[in-house]
Write a structure and sequence with these properties.
Distance between the termini: 27 Å
Largest sheet: 6 strands, antiparallel
Order of helices and strands: EEHEEHHEEEEEEHEH
Number of strands: 11
Structural class: alpha+beta
Radius of gyration: 16 Å
Strand content: 25-35%
Shape: globular
Number of helices: 5
Strand order of the largest sheet: 1-2-4-3-5-8
């Protein structure tokens, strides 16, 4: 399965959860016109920002939100890092070269860099879907949402609290 969210201005973003899903994201879901995001630190998922329509340009907010998601779902969250360096490239700049392990790609050419702070919210869309991503995106699309901060809680404990809070709404 994949991570996903919708940027505040309506672009779809899909991200990998592990090496296998990273391979699938880049090889099957990254198309011409998309932007692919990753962090400079190992252990990050690839995130693909997809345009609303073929001729749509990405806003700075959409790029930043995707970079934030990429950083948030990397090891940076677990390590408690306050800022992370993420970058974006075009799909055609990524190549699977001989000897690279699953989920890893060689990046060729120029990268656009973003210094971002991990930020996470979880909410329920009007369609009843659970969406997680940057606070600035989730708050726009989910009237019912929670902002998560880093701490010592286990993810399973946080998920139980979220379910309990949803029942209250």
């Amino acid at each position: 399965s994949f991570r996903w969210f919708i940027t505040s201005d309506g672009h779809f973003v899909v991200g990998g959860r592990d090496a296998t899903s990273n391979d699938v994201i880049v090889k099957k879901h990254a198309n011409k016109g998309d932007l692919v995001f990753h962090t400079e630190m190992p252990g990050s998922g690839f995130f693909v920002l997809k345009p609303k329509s073929p001729d749509t340009e990405f806003s700075p907010d959409a790029k930043m939100q995707t970079a934030v998601a990429c950083a948030t779902f990397s090891r940076a969250w677990q390590r408690g890092l306050g800022s992370v360096l993420a970058y974006s490239v075009f799909p055609e700049q990524l190549r699977k070269e001989l000897g690279l392990p699953k989920g890893t790609f060689m990046v060729h050419g120029k990268r656009e860099y973003y210094t971002v702070s991990p930020s996470l919210a979880i909410g329920i869309t009007p369609d009843g879907e659970v969406m997680s991503g940057p606070r600035t995106a989730v708050a726009v699309h989910c009237a019912t949402h929670m902002i998560l901060d880093r701490g010592d809680s286990k993810p399973s404990d946080i998920a139980k609290k979220f379910q309990q809070k949803l029942r209250e709404f």
